[in-house]
Amino acid sequence: MASHVVTLIPGDGIGTETSAAMQRVVEATGVDIQWDVAQAGAACIEQYGTPLPDPTIEAVKRNKVAIKGPITTPVGSGFRSVNVALRKMFNLYVCLRPVISIPGAGGRYEDVDIVIVRENSEDLYAGIEFEQGSEAAGRLIDFCEAEGAGTIRPDSGISIKPISVTASQDIVRYAFDYAVKHGRKKVTACHKANIMKYSDGLFLRTAREVAQEYAGKVEFNDNIIDAFCMNLVTDPSWFDVIVFPNLYGDIASDLSAGLCGGLGIAPGANIGKEYAIFEAVHGSAPDIAGQDLANPTAEILSAAMMLDHLGELESAEAIRQAVRNVYAKGETLTNDIRRTTRSEKPGCSCTEFTNALVAEIGRL
What we know:
The protein has 13 helices and 12 strands. The two termini are 19 Å apart. α1 packs parallel to α13 and α6 (165-181) packs across α7. The protein has 364 residues and is α/β, with parallel strands linked by helices. Strands 2-1-3-12-11-4-5-10-8-9 form a 10-stranded mixed β-sheet, with helices on both faces. It has a two-stranded antiparallel sheet with strand order 6-7.
């Protein structure tokens, strides 16, 4: 059996607990993983002056594959997202989010099986912003008016939304290649090209051009983003692989996760041409940190995606099957799932849930 070295970034809040649970489950499969532990998050600021210290960056560069727990991002102030910084630094242009029903998890549907492919580098998350009242914002406001592009109120903060042919080609081609590799039938491109003709319009035009390369292999269609949201909650079976610009993909990922039981069971990956970082997509939940109450399912299923990436397919499927079995039995589930399913049974601890998964893997 091959040995793999993986950078492990436990993160903030419940991250240390969910990461430890993930390690136990991965090790139960027998796969040989050497964990290169590195730190990131608010706790690093006092020591390093940054939430993303150089030793952590070097560990990702060295190993090329990483898995991380949730990291707190302040709202409206403070440092920018560590997640966004990692995506930019390592050109992780794909955010991959499979959304699959787990019977017993309390999802709105029992048969959801879709894949969200989100462009990670551009759009409003590019971080090109101008603060309200700044000279730069004033010059940009004057420029837009002089060019006849429209009037912006002088007390505005401004974010720029770049969407390029290059990034659009890369993300749409990834979506189609994923569909071909995994036997998927259809790719849907989501956009607001009816309003934003030069940004979303470019994305849609590029998607249509790339789709022609896969004609006869994979079906293609497109959805305006607001119609997509309605269609998704009406009948998720209309969709298969769905590709988005950055912001819409972020929102749609969480919306889709809500159909299946919530972010506590939603895995994710950020993938580039050289590096890949796998992560639970939920928050750091500092209110329950250190109490052994966290649900580690998302981190554990993200590890299964990581094992797929490493070529450890049997171990990855063993983890997914163990998760399905434990949820289907319904005997050992954490409080968040009990609330989702409106069950009166007491929730179990993170440790108890992990124990059940390890035992289930042992029976497979």
